[in-house]
Amino acid sequence: MLQTRTKQMDIGLIGTGPMGSGMARTLLRAGHKVTVYNRTRQKAEALAADGATLADSAAAAAGCGIVITMLANDDAVENTVFGADGVLAGLTRGGIHISGSTISVDLSKRLTEAHQGLGQGFVAAPVLGRPPAAESGSLFVMAGGETAAIERVKPVLTDLGQKLFLVGDQPFQANLMKLCCNFLIFSTIEQLAEVFAIGAKGGLEKETIFSVLTESFFTAPVHKNYGRIIVDGAYDPPGAKLGLGAKDNRLFLEAGAELAVPLPFASILRDRFLASEAKGDAERDFCVIAERAAEDAGL
């Protein structure tokens, strides 16, 4: 869902997996000039046909002055930013790094300090939505950072999604907000899985349960979208792999430890993710954790 055309900007985008490639196409449709880089060049080459320019390094992509990283985990972000020919090396003084990745609060703080030390800006802008939402420009974007930096990149953030939330003046606050959102997604999957399990043991059809829930009080996208995946057993191909869900839940638990907040439900989810990995489901959609509730019920 593209917004009204905003000021055209020169943007680098690093990480052209399912989410990053969709975001790149959305920005191109909005009229921005987009330079892309991916460690595996082949994954970026397809975007050239859509009008993107290919960069040979993360530093080259960061040379645009505004660069988005959309990478899988802390290690990938850290290597891309701090490594040789990385974002820090290529971003000019006054340039802004937008991190769309779901990363730890600790890494977000270290990125903020590193960029500030070089006179660069850093905005954390993680998103809610799966690859189809990235492709259609209908993500929800949560931004944290200095007001001046966010104002400069607001045309980019606005064009990426259907709604932009300003959640705090510290980048890590946006990362914490994203971890909270993902925890609620995982918790909802667990709730649905338990409801489907007890319903099945009582002779209720999954479709009946799903219809009653999603056509009454439980009409949120999180119930409809993830409930449908569970009902259909649509875990292959994955919209988001099990490892990503496990990583995000682990980061949520780490944030709880740092802030001295007990998170008992997150500990249950940790075990669901571990059990699914042990079952050989690492490459499947993270909704596959719902199968563990069914197994516990003897189904």
CATH class identity of the largest domain: Alpha Beta
Structural class designation: alpha/beta
State mean pLDDT (0 to 100 scale): 96
Strand residues, percent: 5-15%
Number of helices: 14
How many strands appear in the DSSP assignment? 9
Assigned CATH architecture of the largest domain? 3-Layer(aba) Sandwich
If you compute it from the alpha carbons, what radius of gyration comes out, rounded to the nearest whole angstrom? Answer: 20 Å
* Count of all domains: 2
Shape: globular
Q: Describe the main β-sheet briefly.
A: 6 strands, parallel
| H and E order | EHEHEHEHHEHEEHEHEHHHHHH
Lateral arrangement of strands in the main beta sheet: 3-2-1-4-5-6
CATH topology of the largest domain: Rossmann fold
Helix content estimate:
40-55%
The low-pLDDT segments are 1-5
CATH-defined superfamily of the largest domain: NAD(P)-binding Rossmann-like Domain
- The end-to-end distance, rounded to whole angstroms, is 41 Å
Protein name: NAD(P)-dependent oxidoreductase
InterPro entries: 6-PGluconate_DH-like_C_sf, 6PGD_dom2, 6PGDH_NADP-bd, HIBADH-like_NADP-bd, HIBADH-related, HIBADH-related_NP60_sf, NAD(P)-bd_dom_sf
Pfam family, one: NAD_binding_2
Active site: 178
